[in-house]
Backbone:
């Protein structure tokens, strides 16, 4: 008889936060090139909410369960990993559980000085920021990043990573408290969009070279106005509308690039390449203290419904994490 474990399921396949509940399921079995990890903590991300609502199905071949990032101990090793190694890892799904199967190439060592809760806040966030800000956005030292959603899990990582790379950061958020938190994280300019025109403020700060946008259509005009010549807008979500009306004359005049990407649907080989780059570039920043894991609040695995409700409330500043 297969060993069982606790995992989180969605009642009736989709629904509100209250649809999340703990169940007993068979422990997964790793295949060739995979690790079995005893999960100690799992990050909670907005794609988990979309999947719970039935709007973001797992890509082909990915586990059906929620959870895109974990930290824990290796139980069954592969490649460079041995049983007992402390790792954090990017997953295609299945992280909301006591055990998870991980592509060995998508695991990274827990950075020195971090516990499992802090480490679980890193993979999905750091991979996303690195791919979109530094690869698609090609942010360089001396340039300025415009960051929307400054106190989201992505936001707190992007502020710190951009500063570590020698860039300036103009950060937007809703509310004075969140704007103050962005400044504490290192943003050069923090804009409270509830009472200030972020486009005008960004232009007054000298304009921006890269914009990381998770809002979408409702912010396009002001973001494009603030963009310097040769600037890049990178979309990673569309919470404020997913269909853009692009003013082509402005786009051409500024020689602007509009792009975007999703992390989860990328191939295993693409994620492995990203893991190598993140370990080479970002892990030294973390271990030097230039980038830290910012955890807003943690919940037990069985409190996954409360964790989702808290994330959906928008009151968090940093990552929400489940502890097993």
Residues:
């Amino acid at each position: 008889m297969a060993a069982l474990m606790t995992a989180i399921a969605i009642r009736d396949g989709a629904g509100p936060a209250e649809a999340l509940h703990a169940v007993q399921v068979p422990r997964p079995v790793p295949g060739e090139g995979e690790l079995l990890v005893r999960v100690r903590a799992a990050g909670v991300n907005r794609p988990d909410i979309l999947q719970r609502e039935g709007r973001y199905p797992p890509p082909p071949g990915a586990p059906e369960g929620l959870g895109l990032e974990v930290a824990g101990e290796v139980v069954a090793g592969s490649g460079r990993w041995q049983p007992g190694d402390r790792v954090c890892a990017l997953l295609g799904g299945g992280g909301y559980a006591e055990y998870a199967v991980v592509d060995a190439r998508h695991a990274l060592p827990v950075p020195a000085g971090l516990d499992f809760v802090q480490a679980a806040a890193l993979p999905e966030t750091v991979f996303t920021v690195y791919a979109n800000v530094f690869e698609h956005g090609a942010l360089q030292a001396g340039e300025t990043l415009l960051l929307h959603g400054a106190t989201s899990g992505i936001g707190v990582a992007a502020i710190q990573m951009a500063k570590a790379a020698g860039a300036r950061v103009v950060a937007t958020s809703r509310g004075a408290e969140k704007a103050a938190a962005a400044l504490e994280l290192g943003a050069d300019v923090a804009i409270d969009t509830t009472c200030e025109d972020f486009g005008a403020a960004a232009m007054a700060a000298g304009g921006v070279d890269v914009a990381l946008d998770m809002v979408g259509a409702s912010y396009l005009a002001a973001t494009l106005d603030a963009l310097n010549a040769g600037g890049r807008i990178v979309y990673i979500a569309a919470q404020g509308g997913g269909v853009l009306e692009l003013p082509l004359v402005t786009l051409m005049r500024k020689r602007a690039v509009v792009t975007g990407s999703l992390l989860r649907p990328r191939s295993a080989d693409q994620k492995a390449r990203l893991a190598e780059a993140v370990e080479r570039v970002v892990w030294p920043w973390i271990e030097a203290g230039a980038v830290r894991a910012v955890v807003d609040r943690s919940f037990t695995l069985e409190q996954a419904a409360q964790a989702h409700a808290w994330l959906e409330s928008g009151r968090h500043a940093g990552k929400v994490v489940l502890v097993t």
